[in-house]
Amino acid sequence: MKNRWQILVVDDEEVMCESLAAWLREDGYVVDTAASGHEAIDKTRQRDYAIYFVDLKMPGGMDGIETMMQIRRIRAEASIIIITAYATVDTAITAMKEGAQEYIVKPCNPEEISLLVNRIVKVKNLQRENSILRKKLSRQYVVHDIVTKNARMRDILALCQEVASLRSTVLIQGESGTGKEMIARAIHNSGGRAQKPMVAVSCAALAETLLESELFGHEKGAFTGADQQKRGKFELADGGTIFLDEIGDISPKLQVDLLRVLQERSFYRVGGSQEVRVDVRAIAATHVNLQQAVAEGKFREDLYYRLNVIEIRIPPLRERREDVPLLALHFLERLAHELGKDVSDISEGALKLLMEYNWPGNVRELENTIERAIVTCKNHVLTEDSFGFLALNGTAGRVWAPPAGMSLEEMEKVLIVSTLQRTSGNIKESAGILGIDRSTLYEKIKRYEIPR
Amino acid sequence: MKYLYVAAPPEVRPEDRRMVSGRLSGEFDLPVREMEIPDLDFAYEPGRRQYSSIAVLEMALRLIPDDAAKLLTVTDRDLFVPVLTFLFGQAQLGGLVGVLSLARLRQEFYGFAPNRELFEERAAKEALHETGHMFGLVHCSDRGCAMSLATNIRQIDMKQSALCAPCKARLARAQGVKA
């Protein structure tokens, strides 16, 4: 995609500037011109040019070399091509020593410029791709990539680093969409177990018997359909970390089994008689208040204390609104590239609107919202209009009132049923619309006994 | 009613002007008209021994008729812009005027025997290319498309005298015609 890259042509002769700019525009580039080094520096501060054509000889106390050096101070990664009508070996050497990528003598062959720009753009595209892939990797593996400037979140990240090298179990509590699994990955990847797997299990997604087999594995013939031995998630995570998502949803029997494996670090496969020993660090997460579940007798107290050695409570997005613009721009940068859309900014008004929204689905809802806005965006900037659907969902605009006498649970069930109907039962899509993760949706479907 | 004008100074043979306008007919959803313009001596640059395409475009802007949607000037002179050694043609991107030089499209320029058929094919491709720019089309990455960039005669010979499907669709959008 060549037109992503912007070019600045710097030459005091207008005809030179404009003729090169026009020629490059025909090639699909966005090209600006500057008549002096000073103007070039001003424009460099305002826009992110990837390629510069700078004339060597310019009046006004700032020649091409000086201009190039100042540009490089502002945009170290920019590619600068020095052009001159008076080529000497000395000027060429000076230009290259000061960081010019190329040095061309005008007038030059069109083929030469075309090949030169194509070569630079190819390298820029590869560099960009590399940077995005690196970011993707670091998003998965480095704690610091969790985007925040909120003091509580920073404390949590510091705690993640502190506990990363320990073996103690961690209990992460937070609403749906707050990024519990990201925190778990941050802990796993910051510690000594990073080279071993982190295996995630959604406890809400599976029925009791299936979950038991999923966690502990089974022997051949353990039940109908068990035609071969299968290793469970605890075995797969040996040496690493097991992430038990929605731990609050497991059955009393599994609570007992889990307590045993956490205490004794050994278990039996379903249908097996041979003890399997593992070295696994457990990180559990839940969106329900486990302490309350213990008080109500729904969750074993001993398991709660076993899990809750280190407790992390992730604040909902509405309690860290200062992160909304940061996160919105972070998602914009990543998603615009992934979706192949040339959308590069969010207007002040739109950011204000996003800050005011309540984000019941937290960071995941924000990510989905940005994606939806990018997909439907017709220009290069997301504006308040791009987020019109948020107002309709009940933040600003009109107030929607549920039928009288309807409980919160009934309303949630109705919303889930209607969303599932709208998506023809597509769990991933429904979860995206509802702003919750799939495991939470499975858990709610199970809880409300919604037929599928 | 608006027209696509093909303008030529006296040095261009009438049959060449007719050939270009004939090849553009039906390509842009506009009727094509021909017109004569004064010679281009004013655009001559002795230092380069070539003709300034910018000066030619400026003249075309002064001469463009009221009923012209676009105007393509055809010349036999060799064109340049200050930063480049030569140009096959130049156009205002999404603008009113463009210029096409026939000089480097002839086999004689490269020391070969004349080849009328090849010359006409090249002229048709480049006329389509420059007019495409006037309708806002930029260079196409499809080497076979008339909108692909040609910086030498071999690249012109490699492309077709037609737009690829995506460029046709872009042109239709630019002209407000359903593709």
Shape of chain B: globular
Q: What distance lies between the first and last C-alpha atoms of chain A, to the nearest angstrom?
A: 43 Å
The structural class of chain B is alpha/beta
Quick one: which chains have the greatest interface? A-B, 22 and 20 residues
Tell me the CATH topology of the largest domain in chain A. Rossmann fold
**Integer average pLDDT of chain B:** 94
Major sheet details of chain B: 5 strands, mixed
Level-1 CATH class name of chain B: Alpha Beta
Distance between the termini of chain B: 21 Å
Number of strands of chain B: 9
Give a count of the beta strands of chain A, DSSP E runs of length 2 or more.
16
Explain what this protein looks like in three dimensions.
- The complex is a heterodimer of chains A (452) and B (179).
- Chain A is of the alpha/beta class and 452 residues long.
- Chain A is built from 19 helices and 16 strands.
- The longest helix of chain A is centred in the first third of the chain and has 32 residues, at 110-141.
- Chain B is an alpha/beta fold and 179 residues long.
- Chain B has one domain (3-138): Collagenase (Catalytic Domain), CATH 3.40.390.
- Chain B has helices at 14-24, 53-63, 116-134, 153-158, 165-174; strands at 3-8, 32-36, 44-45, 50-52, 68-75, 79-81, 84-87, 89-91, 97-101.
- Chain B has a five-stranded mixed sheet with strand order 2-1-5-9-8, sandwiched between helices. Chain B has a four-stranded mixed sheet with strand order 3-4-6-7.
- In chain B, α1 (14-24) crosses α3.
- Chain B is globular.
- Chain B starts with a strand and ends in a 5-residue tail after the last helix.
- The A-B interface holds A 3, 13, 15-16, 18-20, 22-23, 25-28, 83, 106-111, 113-114 and B 48, 54, 80-87, 90-93, 133, 138-139, 149, 151-152.
